[in-house]
Amino acid sequence: MPTPRISRTIDGRALEPPEPLVLTLDALETLGAHEQLLLLLDREPLPLYHALASGGHAWQTRRGADGSFEVLIWRKSD
After folding, report:
1. Half-sphere exposure of 35 toward its Cβ, with a 13 Å CA cutoff?
2. Cα 9–chain centre separation
3. What are phi and psi of 65, to 5 degrees?
4. What do you get for the CA distance between the two ends of the chain, in Å?
5. By 3-state DSSP, what share of the chain in percent is helix, strand and coil, each rounded to 5?
6. Residue 28, CB half-sphere, CA atoms under 13 Å: how many?
7. Residue 2: per-residue pLDDT
8. DSSP state, residue 1
9. Domain coordinates of the chain in residue numbers?
10. Which terminus, N or C, of the chain has the lesser number of Cβ atoms within 10 Å?
11. CB within 8 A of 73, min separation 6: which ones?
């Protein structure tokens, strides 16, 4: 089984909502098998979680010491 790899990073820390959400959903449409998307944000993306779950994606969220959030996203089938 291939090892998942981060194929794209979206730095949404300087963007206003809903731009990080829109960019993320667009990027997920082209996410290939065994690829991961890393999303960097200043706030937890609560609205995104429902879209990920209903779209067949899994994710892991980590809060940084500076209060930022890193969300790693991949297809559940991977």
Report:
1. 11
2. 8
3. -60, -25
4. 9
5. 25, 35, 40
6. 24
7. 64
8. -
9. 5-75
10. N
11. 24, 28, 31, 36, 37, 38, 39, 52, 57, 58, 59
Please classify residue 24 by burial: count the beta carbons closer than 10 Å to its beta carbon, then call 0-12 exposed, 13-18 middle and 19+ buried.
buried
pLDDT in tens, 20-71: 999 999 999 999 989 999 999 999 999 999 999 999 999 999 999 999 999 9
Fold of 5-75: Translation Initiation Factor IF3 (3.30.110)
The overall pTM is greater than 0.90: yes
CA dihedral 53, 54, 57, 58 (to 10 degrees): 10
Chain length of the chain: 78
